Amino acid sequence: MAFAETFKALSDPVRRKIMELLKKETLSAGEIGSHFDMTGATISYHLSILKKAELITETRQKNYIYYSLNTSVVEEVMLWLSTLKGDN
Amino acid sequence: MAFAETFKALSDPVRRKIMELLKKETLSAGEIGSHFDMTGATISYHLSILKKAELITETRQKNYIYYSLNTSVVEEVMLWLSTLKGDN
DNA sequence: CTGCTATTTAGAAAAATTTCTAAATAATAT
DNA sequence: ATATTATTTAGAAATTTTTCTAAATAGCAG
Fold first, then answer.
1. Is residue B88 part of a domain?
2. Following DSSP, what letter does each residue of chain B receive, concatenated?
3. Sheet of A64-69: strands edge to edge?
4. How far is the CA of B53 from the C1' of C4 (A)?
5. What average pLDDT does this structure show over B57-75?
6. Among A79, A80, A57, A52, which Cα is nearest to A70's?
7. Closest nucleotide relative to residue B45's CA, C1' based
8. Could you say which of A8, A55, A61, B33 is the most buried, measured as most Cβ atoms within 10 Å of its Cβ?
9. Which residues, other chains included, contact B15 with Cβ-Cβ below 8 Å and sequence gap of 6+?
10. Average pLDDT of span A28-33
11. Between the CA of residue B21 and those of B17, B25, B26, B32, B35, what are the distances in Å?
12. Closest nucleotide relative to residue A42's CA, C1' based
């Protein structure tokens, strides 16, 4: 995991909101997009960044692409943060 | 605390390295700068962003300004991350 | 007060990010 | 095979971020 990518990915409010949506349930790209006032192309761009950071994973079904959280990377970020606090 | 500012602050590698330096000890702006190949003005810019995000605090002594970590904001970030994982 | 050191602020250039439109893929359905 | 729907890719414009140089501020020290 590359912290650079992970933190950059989480630094954008749209992407954090996507993470929160996916916390509740797996969603298709289109369903995610319906929560924002942006084109599908822009949502696709944000999804690609979360994917590169391995914060989400995708699975294809019919002609939909479903996205879900990958909590293990979230955990690694938390570990880095916890070392800042001195608990290690 | 504003997550936007906090995550943005942590999204830059220079600023994360500053956080790691300050994890060990309080340092002056100049001492922090000596770890990077950048002008003091640039370091000052990065410090200002960490300060706005309340990730660090400053105290003045003589004509030095010393910086230290503020771990309570680090903890709030960890809390947000933990809700993603579903532990709450 | 004058000079010296530490740091910040201002303004501009360079680089990276975000967003859009238009076109391309991919998969399904008729 | 053609049409339709879902999504991504490419390229460009707009915005934001990072960095620098030069100038300003702040606090000693002599």
1. no
2. --HHHHHHHHTSHHHHHHHHHHHH--EEHHHHHTTSSS-HHHHHHHHHHHHHTTSEEEEEETTEEEEEE-HHHHHHHHHHHHHHHT--
3. A27-28, A64-69, A56-61
4. 33
5. 95
6. A57
7. C8
8. A55
9. B9, B46, B49, B50
10. 98
11. 6, 7, 8, 8, 9
12. C19
Please check whether residue B53 lies inside any domain of the structure: yes
Q: Which residue of B has its CA nearest to A83?
A: B23
Domain count, chain B: 1
Domain with B58 in it: what CATH number? 1.10.10.10
Please give the structure tokens belonging to residue B27. Answer: 């340092």
pTM of the model as a whole = 0.93
Tell me which DSSP letter residue A61 carries: E
Residue A56 in this model has a pLDDT that exceeds 90: yes
> Considering CB atoms only, which of A4, A20, A84 is closest to B19?
A84
Q: How far is the CA of A74 from the C1' of C8 (A)?
A: 36
Partner-chain contact B78 A81, CB within 8 Å: yes
Tokens found for residue A5: 């990518």
Q: Identify the domain containing residue B45 by its residue range.
A: 3-83
Residue range B50-70: average pLDDT? 96
